[in-house]
Specification:
single chain, about 290 residues, Tetrahydropterin Synthase, Chain A, 8 helices, elongated, alpha+beta, about 20% strand, 3-stranded antiparallel beta sheet
Length: about 290
């Protein structure tokens, strides 16, 4: 009798320990009984179950990314290549996922990858090698559309994205493919360069036209200013001549000499009886008659 109480305490402790479980963040639990799913999708926190009767299976509720090794594929132009891929997926139907995989992530990957690889082989068979090397994103989107519903229906997994990874073409075909891609890139670059040069020429022509308009407007303004200055100068000369005709004639004679020898180093030989000298002498004497010598 003295051993009964400790035994009861131990049994109760074992029942308590086995009946309590904790679910961490980013995970969920499926409760099963003798292999049959009873409750699925139990979220993070402290939970209870029937001790020794219900089993707890924890699975990851976050996005999972798996990488598949390159496998053999044949392109439309008959090239044998090895193509790898990445799959980003998430569990959306825990009950179905547990039923098909027993909650084993590795088993889920082993069941999902053959479906993706079969679809990949069919898609590569309809694509040339150069297209395969340059359009990985397009192939990944097509694969997701082809296998997404099938994987969800069979495994309770939602395929979020499929990306083409390494593409390993045969060495003898690789050089010709790169040469073709280089030629296409150079042609595209030439087209872009030609468009740029045409745009630059149009901009330069527009700038030249603007320059001509600005210069024409400036010349017109300058001519107007010069005309106005000449008019004001003529008015000033007329006013000065009216006030002092003798000084004006004298100033005009000096201005004539200045203009004649403004270039510097000029020598002019004139007859004293020439009209030019008579005009100068007349201005100097102040009476309009030539000076006597």
């Amino acid at each position: 009798m003295k051993y009964a109480i400790p035994i009861v305490i131990i049994v109760l402790a074992l029942l308590g320990i086995n009946g309590i479980y904790v679910v961490g963040e980013g995970h969920a639990v499926v409760l099963s009984r003798f292999g049959d799913v009873q409750v699925a999708g139990i979220g993070p926190g402290l939970h209870f179950k029937l001790p020794f009767v219900q089993d707890v299976s924890v699975y990851d509720t976050r996005e999972i990314t798996t990488q598949a090794e390159p496998g053999d594929c044949k392109t439309r132009d008959g090239q044998l290549v090895r193509v790898g891929f990445h799959v980003r997926w998430q569990i959306v139907d825990p009950a179905l996922y547990y039923k098909m995989t027993s909650g084993d992530e590795l088993q889920a990957i082993q069941l999902m990858e053959p479906l993706v690889r079969d679809a990949l082989r069919k898609d590569v068979a309809n694509t040339d090698l150069s297209g395969l090397l340059s359009s990985g994103e397009g192939i990944g989107a097509r694969l997701r559309g082809e296998v997404g519903a099938q994987v969800r229906q069979k495994l309770g997994i939602d395929v979020l994205d499929i990306a083409i990874g390494r593409v390993l073409p045969p060495e003898d075909a690789l050089a010709s493919v790169y040469k073709r891609m280089t030629t296409e890139a150079q042609a595209a670059a030439g087209t872009v360069r030609a468009k740029g040069e045409a745009a630059a020429a149009a901009i330069r022509a527009e700038g030249d036209a603007d320059d001509q308009q600005v210069l024409a407007a400036a010349n017109q303004s300058a001519a107007a200013v010069r005309g106005e200055g000449d008019a004001q100068a003529a008015k000033i000369y007329a006013t000065a001549s009216a006030k002092d005709p003798q000084f004006f004639r004298y100033w005009t004679s000096l201005d004539t000499w200045r203009k004649s020898f403004s270039g510097g180093g000029a020598v002019v030989v004139l007859d004293k009886n020439s009209s030019f000298m008579q005009a100068v002498d007349a201005g100097a004497s102040g009476n309009g008659a030539p000076a006597k010598h």
